[in-house]
Structures are given as structure tokens and as C-alpha cells.
Amino acid sequence: MQKISIKALGLSFGIVWSFLIFFSAILAMWCGRGTHFVSIFADFYYGYNVTFIGSIIGAIWGFIDGFVCGILIAWLYNKFARV
After folding, report:
1. With a threshold of 0.85, does the pTM exceed it?
2. Which stretches within the chain are classed as H helix?
3. 48's torsion region: left (phi>0), alpha (psi -120 to 50) or beta?
């Protein structure tokens, strides 16, 4: 039975979610689209807003959030796959 690498899935989720959070703020800043999405996540990610610095802060929070979620998903998969 194949196991999922916990570290690899955590890093993958962290990078992808960080990228999406960053570009959501950039898109909201340039085009005015997605501001509602940014404002929702700004409630959870302290310092995240529709500015360049805010998008970097959001990307850091997004990486941490995605990394933890990826670790949990891989860990749970590895536990349930043994059954």
C-alpha cells in the first residue's frame, strides 16, 4: 500500500493556496474584482487586504494555512489507507 508524503502534500497545498490568496488581492487591487473574497479572508488572515503588502501578508498566512491542511489530509489518508 502506497503512502502519501506528508511533507510534500503540505508544501503543495501551501504553495497553491498562497498563490491563490496573493493573486486574489492583486486582482482586487488592479481590477476591483474579488474584493468580497478578500474581505472575507481578511477576517481570518490578520493584515490581509487589497494592497501589495496586504497580498504578501495574505500569501504568508495562506501558505501556513494550506501547509497545515495538506499535512492533515495526508496524515488522515495514511491512517485510513491502512484499514
Report:
1. yes
2. 6-31, 35-42, 52-81
3. beta
9-63 tens-digit pLDDT: 999 999 999 999 999 999 999 998 888 999 999 999 999 999 999 999 999 999 9
Domain count, the chain: 1
Contact 13, 70 (CB under 8 A): yes
Rounded to an integer, what distance in angstroms lies between the CA atom of residue 54 and that of residue 80? 38
Residue 58 forms part of a structural domain: yes
CA–CA separation, 67 and 73 (whole Å): 10
Q: Provide the domain limits for residue 21.
A: 6-81
User: In this structure, is residue 10 part of a structural domain?
Assistant: yes
